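Format is chain and fold; as here:
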Amino acid sequence: MITLSVIKADIGSYVGHSQVHPDLIEIAKKELKKSKFLIDFYVTNCGDDLELIMTHTKGRDNKQVHGLAWDVFMKCTEHAKKLKLYGAGQDILATAFSGNVKGMGPGVAELEFEERKSEPVIVFLADKTAPCYMNLPMFRMFADPFCTAGLVIDPKVHVGFKFEIYDIKEAKKIMLNSPEEMYDILALIGITSRYVIKNVFKKDGEPAATVSAEKLSIMAGEYVGKDDPVAIVRCQSGLPAVGEVLEPFSFPHLVPGFMRGSHHGPIMPVSNKDSHPRRFDGPPRVVALGFQLCNGKLIGPVDMFDDPSFDRARQMSNEISDYMRRHGPFQPHLLGEDELEYTTLPEVLKKMDKRFVKLPESESRSFKKIQK
């Protein structure tokens, strides 16, 4: 069994929240090279997030693998502080490693599987957005026949898939089948402030895709930075084809994030070299790196969005950004009240609490629920 682990963290960037300093990438490479248990690795960045892509045979949630990633992030944080990089150690919410980086700040996506005769995978890296940004693309990849033709014409895909959905507010999860429970799936994942697709499986239980579901603001109890999720999707041979996996990103749907994690904006599919959001800390970006696995070795990557066929999506993203930005501090550009709970806005509103006075009874009854 091969395990593909993608672990990311924002441990300091320049200038502002735009990109990772080259020194940090080199430090990460140097540290990962020392490992005796990794089969292969690839270090990159998406915006201001340092991304560690690793293969091994240790399984998911392994203490050695997570400990290695933690040590890399700590060493990079130390150097980031020396350079006075912005937000140095931003995603490090604990002072000591506890055996698993989940709940400690970094984002984690891991798949453990038997490597097939040919094993194409796509690693998605996002910046300036939240885990729910993948709800619509994941649904379209694995449940929408208008995107994935294999759901109709490929017998191996026709049976559908199982979706594991997390309720991130109540810390619960549910497994639902598609196409049998498609409407139930949509009833949940359309509420992106609460429900997140965490995993997708074939009907026989074989893992197909996973998304990091860590919410920094919930873990820290306040706004400390954006979640900037990572995801892994396996392709072909009983799974959606590479082109079907990429097709959802031809539509730049609205996602939470953008400036201060407090605004809606379109997700823009970009090449790795263009993954540095600078306009109002946006628009939110997503990068797709394609690999062929060969006995655990990472053959690649191929920069999948470095393709003129996504130019139209990028143009639409800029047009949508123009439209949303003109709303300024008004909704729907600004997130809804429930999503702003962990941002810096509550501190501003708190100053006005004592200045509110109750409405006269003659007026207030208009806003009260009638008791039956």
The domain at 1-108 is CATH 3.30.70.100 (Alpha-Beta Plaits). Confidence is low (pLDDT under 50) at residues 219-224.
